[in-house]
UniProtKB/TrEMBL annotation:
Keywords: Signal
Name of the protein in question: T9SS C-terminal target domain-containing protein
Taxonomic lineage from the root: Bacteria, Pseudomonadati, Bacteroidota, Cytophagia, Cytophagales
Gene3D superfamilies referenced in this protein's UniProt entry, alphabetically: 2.160.20.20, Immunoglobulins
Tagged with keyword Signal: yes
InterPro entries registered for this protein in UniProt: Autotransporter_pectin_lyase_C (IPR012332), Ig-like_fold (IPR013783), Pectin_lyase_fold/virulence (IPR011050), Secre_tail (IPR026444)
Species the sequence originates in: Larkinella knui
Length: 421
């Protein structure tokens, strides 16, 4: 029997010319060396931390990947890269370099960002009581929450992309660098925009791709070219389209693309585009207007590409507004081919438990999803992979009989297998 092997790589849509404004893609944590002792200065190499480590200095040339239950304390980011998946940061000084947030980071104790570039990646969340942007903040599909004041200081700058969102109680802009957003737009939601609580001493932006969501009719001055939505309580109401997800699943012939929208404002239609080199895209669908269905009020769209077999194919969605303006989604890179037997599902058919074992050189967080062939998700589980061989067990006794797809995500790799009950 032919088994389909699916790798999906999410590529952030930063054109090369915009890297100076925002950020290049996240460095890979693949092949990282386990770091279990502190009191070190790192100037090269890629390291993964899943234990308690203190007194580190991360210099240019070094990449450190932090995952729970790991912690970093009494340490400095001095030109290198810290990739935050999960875990604990305390007494951490980000003086220079990149802090890249892929997981949820909430009020790290005695942590200052100073001159580092803070990048909240697609799906990442940074929550702070207050936040001062002194250097550079990139919100690339992620979310920044401040329960108090969000302030951009004189040399600070904010770049937003991929529908990134900032939610804050109060907002101040003292920066002359301005806030910008790429064509995939970004939103700032201000709960208290009144004078004395929100002050824009300098023009916020010269880009209409910066969307500002205000709860009432009051609009502060100096918003510049921002697109303002009043009587708006959440960024989801201001964004033209907010995606809950965009993913791919293998079919017997071809690839099924599915996406769910959390919000649609002045939206006209989608067009599915495909490429062989991630540069030259061609439309493969007509206007996708009608959703396949809905779940909890969120519209679900599907499109099946029957014209692909083996090889690597890149997909994106072109979302078109009613006024003809458009924006692109993130990219999915899909490789179809024969899968080597690195994944083991025991037993198959499953009864009460399903043991999932696989081997891969890459370490890091493993996400497992069990869904039926209609796409409904039944189970999810996350764990940390620290060795080449990995084993996880799912409790499946409550599942009805039928055919299921097991999706295993490790870094940028997706393994898809079928299992019966």
């Amino acid at each position: 029997m032919k088994i389909i092997h699916l790798f999906v790589l999410v590529i952030l849509l930063f054109p090369a010319v915009c890297y100076g404004q925002c950020a290049p893609p996240t460095p890979s944590c693949a092949g990282c060396v386990a770091l279990t002792t502190g009191n070190q200065t790192l100037s090269s190499g890629t390291y993964c931390i899943t234990a308690a480590v203190s007194n580190l200095t991360i210099q240019a040339g070094a990449v450190v990947c932090l995952s729970a239950p790991g912690s970093i304390s009494n340490s400095n980011l001095s030109g290198g890269v810290l990739v935050y998946n999960s875990g604990t940061l305390s007494n951490f000084n980000a003086n220079s370099g990149d802090l890249r947030i892929l997981g949820t980071l909430s009020n790290p104790s005695n942590t200052s960002f100073n001159g580092a570039r803070v990048i909240v990646e697609n799906g990442g969340v940074l929550t702070m009581n207050s936040l001062d942007v002194n250097y550079a903040l990139v919100v690339n599909g992620g979310t920044v929450n401040t329960t108090g004041l969000f302030r951009i200081n004189g040399s600070g700058s904010v770049c937003m992309a991929n529908m990134g969102q900032i939610h804050t109680q109060y907002f101040q802009n003292n920066s002359t660098n301005g806030t910008t957003a790429l064509s995939t737009k970004g939103c700032i939601s201000i709960a208290q925009p009144q004078n004395g609580q929100t002050n824009l001493n300098n023009t916020l932006t010269n880009s209409s791709n910066v969307l500002v969501c205000l709860p009432g009719s009051y609009t502060p001055s100096n918003l510049g070219s921002a697109t303002v939505t009043t009587n708006c309580t959440d960024c989801a109401a201001a964004l033209p389209v907010a995606y809950a997800y965009f993913r791919a699943q293998p079919q017997q012939n071809g690839v099924r693309l599915e996406w769910q929208t959390a919000n649609e404002l002045n939206h006209s239609h989608f067009i599915v585009e495909r490429s062989k080199n991630a540069l030259d895209f061609v439309p493969i669908s007509g206007q996708v207007v009608d959703p396949f269905g809905s779940q909890e009020g969120k519209k679900i769209y599907r499109y099946i590409d029957h014209e692909v077999a083996q090889g690597t194919f890149y997909y994106r969605l072109k979302q078109v507004d009613t006024d003809g303006q458009f924006a692109y989604s993130k990219l999915l890179a899909v490789s179809l081919g024969d899968q080597s037997p690195v994944v083991r599902l025991v037993p198959n058919p499953m009864v009460d438990q399903l043991k999932i074992g696989f081997e891969a050189d890459e370490t890091g967080m493993v996400d497992i999803e069990l869904s039926d062939i209609s796409g409904k998700q039944w189970l999810t589980q996350r764990s940390l992979k620290t060795e080449k061989s990995h084993l996880q067990t799912l409790s499946v006794q409550q599942l009805p009989r039928g055919l299921y797809l097991v999706t295993i995500r490790l870094g940028n790799q997706y393994f898809i297998r079928k299992v019966l009950k």
